[in-house]
Design brief:
- The complex is a heterodimer of chains A (249) and B (338).
- Chain A has 249 residues and is of the alpha/beta class.
- Chain A has two domains: 20-145, Alpha-Beta Complex (Spore Coat Polysaccharide Biosynthesis Protein SpsA, Chain A); 148-186 and 194-242, no CATH class.
- Helix content of chain A is 28%, strand content 18%.
- Chain A has helices at 22-31, 50-60, 101-118, 194-213, 222-232, and strands at 14-15, 36-42, 67-73, 89-94, 126-130, 148-152, 185-193, 237-239.
- Chain A has an eight-stranded mixed beta sheet.
- In chain A, α3 crosses α4 (194-213) and α4 (194-213) packs across α5 (222-232).
- In chain A, 47% of the residues are buried.
- Chain B has seven helices and 14 strands.
- With 338 residues, chain B is of the alpha/beta class.
- Chain B has one domain: Spore Coat Polysaccharide Biosynthesis Protein SpsA, Chain A (Alpha-Beta Complex).
- The chains are: A alpha/beta (249), B alpha/beta (338).
- Chain A binds chain B through residues 2-15, 19-21, 24-25, 28, 143, 147-148, 152, 157-158, 160-161, 177, 179-183, 193, 196, 199, 231-234, 236-237, 240, and chain B through 48-49, 51-57, 59-66, 68, 72-73, 75-79, 81, 85-87, 90-91, 94, 209, 300, 303.
- Chain B: It comes from Bucorvus abyssinicus.
- Chain B: UDP-N-acetyl-alpha-D-galactosamine binds at residues 107-109, 112, 197-199.
- Chain B: An alpha-L-fucosyl-(1->2)-beta-D-galactosyl derivative binds at residues 219, 289, 312.
- Chain B: One of its GO terms (biological process) is carbohydrate metabolic process.
Chain lengths: 249, 338
């Protein structure tokens, strides 16, 4: 790939189709006997997406490797019986719903960090948070596995730094000063080692709580806090917008 | 701590015998196992995510790669380091606060002691500036090593070793010597270790962009040729054998390194394969370089240095090489190798 940036200035690879050989990566992954987890939320009307997400993820996400899917929902009864591949597991975890979707979005950070601490750290090595309204059309494999992984948002990858969707108000914990910023990362798909995801979600939730106490809410909610975190804790690997393309574009 | 077993352990080395028709048979061959191979080393925690402090720099552009003329990421997603692919300021801002110590091993045996002065002087100007550095000079003639003035935070240690009969043997025994030294000493003193040839000079900056778990460098003679032309060991009876149709890059034996525990592991493996060949009465085409290439084919490096980091001054500089950082000293091979 000569048309795109495949390495960040801090030497993290940016994963695009054509830059990697999945067979080599699979061999390396299998040697280490790793288990990867996926966290996703289906709250209120989002239960509608569960079937589509689970069937496509089951088929295309790290196919052939053990994946633990952790599905948080306020409506466990609505989840129809889902057929899982033999190596995958599905855990349905009930959560309470919130009146505002922004609250759901931001409490994700808190829920993920709490569950990592109490449960996930013992069950998986790597953990990814993926929005439920995402459908996989192509295989997503072990090329995504690294210590701290962010996905470049498809909306912003062409834009200049100034027009990015960063939070700019200094009162918010998610504020990124003018003149700073690498990429705009989407909150629909991020992850890494269980330890790093724990730190990230804790830091983001802390930012959310502080903002709430100060009566301010970040422009793009948990995504703004994610971007702040990943600016100063740079990802060790980036996924290109191919990994999270917004159909509306 | 070092936990050394009091007993000399024997390990079984299964070497392969080759017959005329290419069939391989295995025969157990018992070799005395040096004590150090059974030592358990305690390693400090790997530093993973560093905090990158606030910095102002040009925005990276997704659609504007800095280098379009060369491969900058391997198929297993390890970075290939070329000028333009990295921002030294960003990397320094993350690595300097970690208070790392970088080790360098170099072998100055026999007449090669005459290269030490220039190597060290140039390293003082260009190698890991601003970091703590320990130079470990392995030599059979400590008196011949000149006294070189070092910057603060940088130390120089002479490691006496014995001189072997042939230059090939000297070259191949490096793996054993480095491995032994890590076990006995350097694992406690450095975080990262680079193993470099002494008959070389630094001309430009060599910085934290080179730090990684397992680091190899592309040989300057073979970065633009197909793998069928790589001088891999092609005889099946050697433990360094690489069949036709296989191979990623041809790595140079003059530069390799990584986290000290990783260097310990792969120097151990390479030394074992070298011993296997010895037991079989064969010597690989390019000595330990062949064994290194065999190892890095099955255990891929996490970072690859472009030939900027391992250049040969006798070669004309092609357009892809923007900066020569580390290169050979012109020498008369007949005169140097006894």
């Amino acid at each position: 790939r000569r048309d795109v940036l495949v390495l960040t200035p801090w030497l993290a690879p940016i994963v695009w189709e054509g830059t990697f050989n999945r067979d080599i990566l699979n061999a390396q992954y299998m040697q280490k006997n790793l288990v990867t987890g996926v966290v996703t939320f289906a709250v209120k009307k989002y239960w509608f997406f569960v079937e589509g997400f689970m069937s496509s993820a089951n088929k295309y996400f790290l196919a052939g490797h053990q994946v633990n899917f952790y599905l948080f929902t306020d409506n466990p009864e609505q989840i129809s019986h889902l057929h899982m591949a033999p190596e995958n597991h599905l855990f349905v975890i009930p959560v309470q719903n919130y009146s505002l979707w922004q609250d759901i979005s931001m409490s994700r950070m808190d829920i993920i960090s709490r569950y990592i601490r109490s449960q996930f750290q013992y069950e998986v090595d790597y953990l990814y948070s993926i929005d439920i309204d995402v459908q996989l059309f192509e295989h997503i494999g072990v090329e995504i596995i690294d210590t701290l992984v962010g996905t470049i948002s498809s909306w912003q990858y062409k834009a200049r730094r100034e027009s990015k969707l960063y939070e700019r108000r200094t009162e918010s914990q998610a504020a990124i000063p003018k003149g700073e910023g690498d990429f705009y990362y989407t909150a629909s798909f991020f992850g890494g080692s269980v330890a790093e995801v724990y730190k990230l979600t804790r830091a983001c939730f802390k930012g959310v709580m502080e903002d709430r106490e100060n009566g301010i809410e970040a422009r793009w909610h948990d995504e703004s806090h994610l971007n702040k975190y990943l600016l100063y804790h740079k990802p060790t690997r980036l996924l290109s917008p191919e990994y999270c393309w917004d159909e509306e574009l | 701590y070092l936990s050394a077993s009091p007993l000399l352990k024997m390990f079984v080395c299964c070497h392969r015998l080759a017959f005329g028709n290419g069939n391989v048979h295995y025969l157990p061959y018992y070799l005395p196992c040096p004590e150090i191979f059974s030592m358990k080393l305690q390693y400090t925690e790997e530093k993973l995510i560093q905090l990158f402090p606030q910095l102002f720099y040009q925005q990276p552009r997704v659609l504007a790669p800095k280098r379009q003329d060369v491969l900058t990421v391997t198929p297993w997603l390890a970075p290939i380091i070329w000028e333009g692919t990295f921002n030294s300021e960003i990397l320094d801002s993350a690595y300097r606060p970690l208070n790392l110590t970088i080790g360098v091993t170099a072998f100055a045996i026999g007449k090669y002691t005459k290269f030490v002065g220039r190597f060290l002087e140039s390293a003082e100007k260009h190698f890991m500036k601003g970091y703590r550095v320990n130079y470990y000079i392995f030599t059979d003639n400590p008196k011949a090593i000149p006294d070189v003035q070092l910057q603060p935070g940088r130390r120089f240690v002479i490691v006496p070793i014995k001189k072997y009969a042939s230059w090939q043997e000297i070259s191949m025994r490096r793996m054993e010597a480095i491995n032994k030294h890590i076990a006995e000493r350097s694992h406690q003193e450095v975080d990262y270790l680079f193993c470099l040839d002494i008959d070389m000079v630094f001309y430009n900056a060599w910085g934290p962009e080179t730090l990684g778990d397992i680091v190899a460098a592309i040989h300057p003679g073979y970065f633009s040729v197909p793998r069928s032309h790589f001088p891999y060991e092609r005889r099946r009876s050697s433990a360094a054998y690489i069949p036709d149709g296989e191979g990623d890059f041809y790595y140079g034996g003059a530069v390799f390194g990584g986290l000290v525990k990783k260097v310990y592991e792969f120097t151990k493996t390479c030394h074992m394969t070298i011993l296997t060949d010895k037991a079989n009465g064969i010597m690989a085409a390019w000595q330990e370089e062949s064994h290194l290439n065999r190892h890095f084919l099955s255990h891929k490096p996490s970072k690859v240095l472009s030939p900027e980091y391992l250049w040969d001054d006798r070669k004309p500089k092609p357009p892809e090489i923007h900066l020569i950082r580390f290169s050979t000293v012109d020498k008369n091979y007949k005169e140097i190798r006894d």
